[in-house]
Specification:
two-stranded antiparallel ribbon, single chain, alpha/beta, 7 helices, 41% helix, five-stranded mixed sheet, 246 residues
Length: 246
């Protein structure tokens, strides 16, 4: 994982999402489950002065724990692939720690496709209409803040799954099998222009969330998955390693 130097504004990337200019990054995150990300200057003085719903020792312990787990998982995953999360300047420090740990968990849970993940970039935007979004052209994951740590973790894995759709050649072979496992008509289009919850692409992303995290805290009632579909995705992520795209 590496952090970028200051980037151009989001609206200069040919990205469908725009973001108003800011003199300084203003996204700040707490890692406790109940608190949400808040807006505050990303200076050390401001971060020290800002009140928090969690006592300081607990917050530091949680943050260090996430960083330690993420570092260990990243080291384990990096032995066999070149998957990399590039963090933009719009991402606050504690959100960066959560994203790093989540990405490492994602890579470690997907040894069969780790070689084709490559580079993914992360940016945060409080004005994003959706919870999160993946731009296939720029390979950028955008997440909306404020949000809880649990929702952010699930949203990140969901968008990382969309990255697999374009990064891994073997995904084209998985699609018809997944459609059948979801008990959809065989001629269903992967990116069908239907309600979000009925689109195979979104169902696959949610199946990946369940395979990686072992749970789905978001969209569980709206978007239904069959056990066969979840098992298929878990098998695809973990079996028959795909060679690197290099």
């Amino acid at each position: 994982m590496r952090r970028l130097a200051r980037l151009p504004l989001l609206h200069q990337w040919n990205n469908p999402v725009t973001c108003a200019p800011r003199a300084e990054p203003t996204l700040w995150c707490r890692l406790d489950e109940s608190a949400k990300l808040n807006s505050a200057p990303r200076t050390e003085d401001a971060r020290r002065e800002r009140p928090t719903a969690v006592n300081r020792p607990l917050k530091i312990t949680v943050l260090l724990g996430v960083v330690a787990v993420g570092t260990w998982l990243a080291w384990t995953a990096a032995r066999n692939n070149d998957a990399e999360l590039v963090v933009g300047e719009s991402v606050a420090f504690d959100l960066e720690a959560l994203a790093e740990a989540t990405f490492a968990k994602f890579v470690a849970s997907a040894p069969a496709v780790a070689g084709c993940i490559g580079q993914v970039q992360l940016e945060a935007d409080p004005e994003l209409e959706d919870t999160a979004r993946y731009d296939q052209q720029t390979r950028v994951v955008l997440v909306r803040v404020p949000a809880t740590a649990a929702n952010l973790e699930a949203a990140l894995v969901h968008e990382f799954a969309h990255h697999l759709e374009i990064a891994c050649r073997s995904h084209a072979e998985l699609r018809p099998e997944f459609i059948l496992a979801q008990r959809l008509p065989p001629d269903t289009e992967w990116f069908a222009d239907v309600a979000w919850e009925n689109r195979p692409s979104e169902q696959f992303a949610e199946a990946t969330v369940e395979a990686v995290l072992g749970r789905r805290s978001r969209n569980k009632l709206l978007l239904r998955l069959t056990p066969e579909a979840t098992d298929l995705v878990e098998s695809w992520l973990g079996s028959n390693p795909e060679p690197s795209m290099d």
